[in-house]
Write the structure tokens for this entry.
Amino acid sequence: GQNIDQPTEMTATEGAIVQINCTYQTSGFNGLFWYQQHAGEAPTFLSYNVLDGLEEKGRFSSFLSRSKGYSYLLLKELQMKDSASYLCAVRDSNYQLIWGAGTKLIIKP
Amino acid sequence: IAGITQAPTSQILAAGRRMTLRCTQDMRHNAMYWYRQDLGLGLRLIHYSNTAGTTGKGEVPDGYSVSRANTDDFPLTLASAVPSQTSVYFCASSDDGGTGTDTQYFGPGTRLTVL
């Protein structure tokens, strides 16, 4: 079967750095997405990786290793507004997105 | 403002009733999707449409139907609602229907409770 694993919950301090990991086992791979979802709101797109390596976008970076079935989202200079769930999704051989259950990130002052 | 709208925002429904969730996008995206989101589970695809006039089944299609008469609208119908269909429903759209980056953009969601 297809599977996306992420930690259920993480806690970090304002101003610090946090890394959210995602491992996947899917039938085929056509890209990996990270989305942010604030409580009661819709998911919003953060990043996309299809080749191995690091993609940097401001305070957020995303890394992919296809051989290891592994990605991480790195958030720097954490702000209180970064408190949200972070969803990892992989596009499979049918070009459908397979979603992880999300990681709830709690930021403490 | 361009984007995706969903209606209603929330609904309480008696089991056995028929219900249609509406979704409209004004971005002229080819592909549209319906997901349900339940606590502790990832988003699960119900149905999708790669272009107007075509639809396909996702991971959890049973009890749901869709139509895509035009580019903008993609309604989801529950023919006879059951309590297990209590969930938050998200509609999404993407530009090129499955290739390239094909980022999905989400509507605000419909919170449905079936009693």
In short: Chain B touches chain A at residues 40-45, 48, 58, 90, 98-99, 101-109 (CB under 8 Å). The first strand of chain B starts at residue 4 and ends at 7. The mean pLDDT of chain B is 93.
